[in-house]
Automatic annotation (TrEMBL):
This is Transporter. It comes from the Bacteria. It comes from Acetobacter lovaniensis. Residues 1-29 form the signal peptide. Keywords: Signal.
Length: 324
């Protein structure tokens, strides 16, 4: 998941209430189904003021290769590995507006290149979420949400002891998203929930860089840098086997323009460089178990199976979702 990790936003349907139901026969109501939320898709605003959602999320990222610029895959040695915790905090300010934040902690290591000098905080995203369209099953209207927020540059990025300590960009990054959610009843009495979404991120300003940084500079460098624009689009499906158990699948496309650095290196030579763009496709199958409308767990793995200028990765992960 932070690189800038891809941040996940699962949530309970029963707690958010932002769903759309289509009845296709004499089946039980789809809102009887309990959900945790998929691994990748963002959830919307809380259903009413005063609800607090907390979700500690744990992942381990294991690279297994590298996608070249032409999309071909190649072995990768040594391999950069990382353990991450991202905890989501979401509070309902009104019945349609929520505030959401994530605390992110990473620990990385690579053979021959050392370990992080302890757990490292990543950049800190804070978003406002507005559910601007409530679902209306009779008129086939889904729930629609708008996200707008900023990454605050709290992660280490400058004057690093080694590259394992890199966990941020040093820049304030604006981001926004739009999400859709609807639920259908299929196969007589099983709920099928669909989410679609699109993210966009853009740096608000450049940042000062010196020596070893998260932008790939070395000792003696002085200058500035800025991360490139990036985004994600995807959809998820959640199929209810029974009241508590749910099968889940996400499919998402990530893209990022290259970061831009300019300044002078240790010899005084002028540097002005834009890194190559990158992109990937990921699929994330998972299983949810919910023991109440407000509490549940999810286990699964993100698999990055195609792309360019990025790693071939497998990322097993789990989360515990709690609504108060």
């Amino acid at each position: 998941m932070l690189s800038i990790k891809k941040i996940k936003y699962p949530n309970f349907l029963a707690a958010t209430g932002i769903m759309m139901t289509f009845y296709t026969g004499t089946a039980r109501a789809a809102d009887d189904q309990w959900y945790t939320g998929s691994l990748v898709s963002p959830s919307g605003a809380q259903s009413r003021a005063g609800l607090l959602g907390v979700e500690p999320y744990y992942s381990y990222t294991q690279p297994v290769g590298y996608f070249a610029s032409d999309g071909s895959s190649h072995p990768q040695h040594p391999r950069q590995q990382m353990f991450s915790n991202s905890t989501m905090w979401k509070y309902g300010i009104t019945d349609h507006i929520s505030i959401q934040a994530h605390t992110v902690v990473n620990y990385g290591w690579e053979r021959g290149h050392g370990h992080s000098s302890g757990p490292k905080f990543g950049d800190f995203p804070v978003d406002m979420i507005w559910r601007f369209l409530d679902p209306n099953p009779k008129k086939y209207i889904p729930a629609l949400n708008l996200f707008a927020g900023v990454y605050f540059p709290t992660g280490d990025y400058n004057k690093l002891q080694n590259k394992q300590d890199s966990n941020g960009t040093g820049a304030y990054v604006f981001r926004m998203a739009i999400t859709e959610q609807s639920t259908y009843v299929v196969n007589g009495n099983h709920a099928l929930r669909l989410r679609t979404w699109g993210w966009f991120r853009h740096a608000l300003a450049s940042t000062h860089l010196q020596d070893v940084t998260s932008y790939g500079t070395g000792n003696g460098f002085h200058g500035r840098g800025s991360p490139g624009m990036s985004g994600q689009a995807g959809f998820s499906l959640e199929y209810g086997l029974n009241h508590s158990w749910v099968l889940v699948m996400d499919l998402a496309r990530d893209w990022a323009n290259g970061s831009h650095i300019w300044g002078t290196d240790t010899t005084g030579k002028h540097v002005d460089r834009i890194a190559s763009s990158s992109g990937d496709w990921q699929i994330a199958p998972a299983v949810e178990y919910n023991w109440s409308p407000r509490f549940g767990v999810i286990f699964g793995s993100a698999i990055y199976y195609a792309g360019h200028n990025t790693g071939v990765k497998i990322s097993p992960q789990f989360a515990v979702n709690m609504i108060y």
